């Protein structure tokens, strides 16, 4: 990092501030990434997430992205991995870097412009289209929720997850995250249930030769 001085204008006149900024360029970030993985309970192999490239991290609200970028991208990689493979652990928990940046408040807003009848009519049509689009989004989300709740096999859960990914642009960030987490959770629930049923079905019936050996 490096320190720079900047001139700012305040109500009492111009003043100088010292800020710490990153000492590298965007080109220096190309190719740098972290990849998070862990062994899930009941498995023996590491489940790896997708590589998280530093150049692809757009929202960087924390000042630690300047002073300690390795730590920040590691934290972000862990959060992304956990949301994908064990969402129930941190469901609903978001850090400032995962939230869209707020728009700056305009201190001296421009005067309100008068609208013509044509502009008002156009705005009403736009609002109607937006309401119809919102209703369509709700219908798609409700259908996906019902499919998730009734999924009885891991293949169905995978297919639902793929459908959610294909509808990402329509659903928006909030609904996409909710449905994706539900689908992943349902996948592991169904997988665990199938494994338990397989073990139960493998138990021999009373009177069979294997039964005495198994419970000896």
From TrEMBL:
Pfam families: RecT. It comes from the Bacteria. One of its GO terms (biological process) is DNA metabolic process. One of its GO terms (molecular function) is DNA binding. This is Recombinase RecT.
